[in-house]
Design goal:
About 35% of the residues lie in helices and about 20% in strands. With about 300 residues, the protein is α+β, with helices and mostly antiparallel strands. This is Tumor necrosis factor receptor superfamily member 11B.
Length: about 300
């Protein structure tokens, strides 16, 4: 509805009704000074309420004429502007928490997984690397806080949500500790049931490749040089996460003997340090397996490797 010269009368009647009812009268609308275009005299005009704009100023004989803001625009304050303000638009990585209305602009916040940083920009929550766990999860106003896993705990994945988990105790069903857990992998347990060292190494390969942070180009070379196992190995255009997924799929179908070749593959592709670290893990597994379970597992692995070569 348009505000007209009836506004002062309506406010007067409302004030009288309030006094009769014994309640405080509403305050009069704020005003501004203008010049009557007919007389040239100064006049005091009522401002327009939030959600409205000034269509025409008052004169000595007529009050201010206000009109509602059209859709997509707003005014939040008492005003005498000739046009409503255009509704804002949420920025990159933001979502609207309150839509724009005639008397208020939209309200925006960082979308889930992001937090507000300097200059109002939203940034993705930090993901804690392997070997570290989440101490406090990120919020719209705060980044993720990470901390190194303490003794007896580990984190095998890059995550913005998971904390460190306790190492397996290796006490169930007569199992023994074959490889003690580290900050980035769980303990490896054995029950001495004719499993070879390569089988046990398979258990830590997924977290190993995440922990080493090997870049995509080298991961492609590694994937290409792994022994054939029947798993899909195409690597063109894949990012590091997808490439590690392909290596994990290969490891799931590879024989124990093929798993034993991974340290050498790493060395041949230039990842000498990673190859040496994985070779040390395998040697420790082999040594502990022989000590805990005797030489039968080691022999079984060699025979299994020969059978695999004969089948191929």
């Amino acid at each position: 509805m348009l505000w007209s010269s009836l506004l002062p009368l309506a406010l007067l009647l409302a004030a009288r009704a309030a006094r009769v009812a014994g309640v405080a009268a509403p305050p009069p609308p704020p005003t501004y000074r203008d010049t009557d275009p007919v007389t040239g005299h100064s006049v005091e005009c009522a401002r327009c309420a939030p959600g409205n704009y000034l269509r025409s100023s008052c004169t000595a004989t007529r009050g201010s004429v206000c009109a509602p803001c059209p859709s997509g625009s707003f005014t939040e304050l008492w005003n005498y502007i000739g046009k409503c303000l255009r509704c804002g638009v949420c920025g990159r990585d933001q979502v609207a928490t309150t839509p724009c209305a005639a008397d208020s602009d939209c309200r925006c916040a960082c979308r889930p997984g992001y937090f507000k940083r300097e200059h109002g920009m939203c940034h993705r929550h930090r993901e804690c690397p392997t070997g570290q766990g989440v101490l406090s999860k990120g919020s719209p106003d705060r980044d993720t806080a990470c901390g190194a896993c303490s003794n007896g705990t580990f984190s095998a994945a890059v995550s913005a949500h998971a904390g460190c988990a306790a190492h397996a105790a290796c006490g169930a069903a007569g199992e023994r500790m074959l490889l003690s857990g580290g900050s980035w992998h769980d303990s490896v347990c054995t029950s001495c049931r004719s499993r070879a060292g390569g089988d046990y190494l398979r258990e830590i390969l997924p977290s190993f490749f995440v922990h080493q942070k090997i870049h995509a180009r080298r991961l492609r070379r590694i994937l290409h040089r792994l022994p054939p196992s029947g798993a899909k190995r195409g690597a063109a255009g894949l990012d590091p996460s997808d490439l590690r997924g392909r290596i994990d799929a290969w490891a799931a179908t590879a024989t124990a003997a093929q798993i034993r070749e991974v340290p050498a593959v790493l060395t041949r592709t230039g990842a000498d340090g990673a190859g040496e670290r994985l070779r040390n893990k395998l040697q420790r597994i082999d040594s502990n397996l022989k000590e805990l379970c005797g030489p039968s597992n080691e022999v079984g692995e060699v025979e299994g490797s020969r059978r695999a070569e004969t089948t191929a």
